[in-house]
Amino acid sequence: MSWLSSLKSVFSPAQEVKEEEIQNVLQNYILPNSNNALKDRITQVNVQGRVLQITINTFPEEADHLQKIHDDLADALEKCGIQELNMHVIQQKIQHDHAGHSCSSHEHGKDGHSCSSQPKAKAQQQNKNQKLPPVLDASPQAKAEQDPNNPPIQKAAPQQRDVPKHPRIQNVILVSSGKGGVGKSTTTVNLALALQKLGLKVGVLDADIYGPSIPTMLGNSGQTPMIEAENFVPLEAYGMAVLSIGHLIGKENTPVAWRGPKATGALMQLFNQTLWPDLDVLMIDMPPGTGDIQLTMAQRIPVTGAVIVTTPQNVALMDAIKGIELFNKAQIPVMGVVENMSTHICSNCGHEEQIFGQGGGDQLSKQYDIPLLGRLPLNVQIRENVDAGKPSVVAGDDAAASYIAIAEKLAQSLTKVEKDPQRIF
Question: Diameter of the chain by CA atoms?
Fold first, then answer.
């Protein structure tokens, strides 16, 4: 597949990014002091959010022009909505094996180097103060011989402490699980409704891009949000502001067959380009696992804390542990564990049985020194009510009190977070 076809296949949800204009810039740029077109040198292009990554082939005699190529493209692409350009250069040696060369401030890739655009004012100031860095041999042997006192600069991944707070959302709580089928979405909607009963202003964002079930559970499946000033207006469900990718894709049986960049980009659009009202808490129903979407949330959304939902079953605990470890590495506090399907009471004879085992929530709580927020039963009423669009807290079934008790502990945790002087958001 050509680089142009590859670019067209990439979804960039940021409406500021103008894909057709990006294509025109890349197709029409002529390399300095030559008649060679950039489009003939491009081997790979990728757009993620407002960052464009490009790989091109060059030759030794063009080494002095690499910075100009990068700066010209960065200026032109900035008008198309691209905030950062990462240019990976593979220099072709006529009589030798391929080796990469660079005009950049940090390495990028195995066989080449990259140059990355920064905010324009900062980049211009740096260009005044320093000359073009020399072209370096990026072969493994050359890398080993580099001056250890002058290592290549690498771009650090974004951290939670660097993420600005949302102007209208006080707290963001992620409801997560290491695997699917443990009742995470059911727990999300019931805890959101329980927090609302406690007097908090609550919203719900369904981040389970591939399996959105929140619309069904909150009874507004099939509804579509309005657009106001290029922003989504969240739907309403039981007094809460709600938005899900399920509200945007049409029929319930439409699959969301998206690759990682498109899915994470869509999630960021749902969070940033939605007219959320003033909220005390936004509950985010996470997809299962520890993949692209979880990393995006950890790096680009200001998260107050996470709630882990698990069953007592050993395989569920193993995956829940991976989720806890991910949040620990991302500097996101784990506010507690909810043990779902903890016990089953037969509706005919009253016999109580731990179908999925017992003690799993206690084990996680003790191992990671995090609270066990509560245990929820394996109860047919929970399933029936959520399938009907009236979760337990609304229906007032036997499990409603358990959800409210867990929500009370969460609300107390939020009070402690808000008073913590070390907290930066």
Answer: 87
End-to-end CA distance of the chain: 44
Return d(Cα 231, Cα 249) in angstroms, integer: 16
The pTM (predicted TM-score) of the whole model is 0.61
d(CA 309, CA 130): 52
Assign 216 to helix, strand or coil: helix
3-state secondary structure of 240: strand
pLDDT tens by residue, 74-117: 889 888 888 888 888 887 765 344 334 444 333 333 345 555 55
Whether 89 contacts 101, CB under 8 Å: yes
Element (H, E) at 282: strand 279-285
Burial class (CB in 10 A: 0-12, 13-18, 19+), 251: exposed
With CA atoms as reference, report the closest residue to 243 among 282, 197, 186: 282
Query: Tell me: the pLDDT tens digits for 6-16?
Result: 554 444 444 56
Report how far apart, in Å, the C-alpha atoms of 94 and of each of 61, 81, 141 are: 11, 37, 19
